[in-house]
């Protein structure tokens, strides 16, 4: 009889603890939701619109400084065939218009990272094809870090409603992990960049929401993407775009 009472108490306490965990998760989601700002204020919308306008003006300025020619080939590469075409055309411009090509490349890459547009892996491949391994890796690391930083600050301004609607469970998990690892947060962020534990796009958007300091975010991003950047750029140099390859990861 006593044993049955003990088992009953233990089961009830276990159920209670599980219920508390679920309630804690629900409370965290609710607290995050309550702290979100939606609809956005006028100044937040103005700031986001200003970012888009800035990118548009930059790309227009680069386009106007290029010589008169047919630029119908200019589009975001989605396949290796698109990458072939873009590379073949840009190679003739890179030597004579190096600055314009570099600025245009970085602007497009940062734009894609900022607004979470897929396909930056093809941009990384393009860097290796146009500039070689070392310069290509340096260019990809710079552009990817700048793009991730741009996404970080844009998310800090207007990202909370978006991430709460897309990844509420991941956000609670990430918030818990960051809270537990405050003393070794840089190591944890490096671990995330080097492994597929969480998507890089999610990390860029969620980091300011869960109070990851920017200096830690910046350092972890710039160091963590170097191996992936090197492998991606090196793949194109080795294969020279003559084989169809499937890439299993994408830089952020």
Automatic annotation (TrEMBL):
- Topology of the protein relative to the lipid bilayer: Multi-pass membrane protein
Any GO BP annotation: autophagosome assembly
| InterPro entries, A to Z | TM41A/B, VTT_dom
- What are the boundaries of the region Disordered? 1-24
Q: Where are the transmembrane segments?
A: 45-66, 102-127, 133-154, 190-210, 216-249
Recite the UniProt keywords alphabetically.
Membrane, Transmembrane, Transmembrane helix
Comp. bias intervals (Polar residues): 8-22
One Gene Ontology term, aspect cellular component? membrane
- Subcellular location, in the record's words? Membrane
All residue ranges annotated as the VTT domain in the record: 117-233
Instruction: Extract the PANTHER family matched here.
Output: PTHR43220, SNARE ASSOCIATED GOLGI PROTEIN FAMILY
Quote the protein name from its UniProt record. SNARE associated Golgi protein
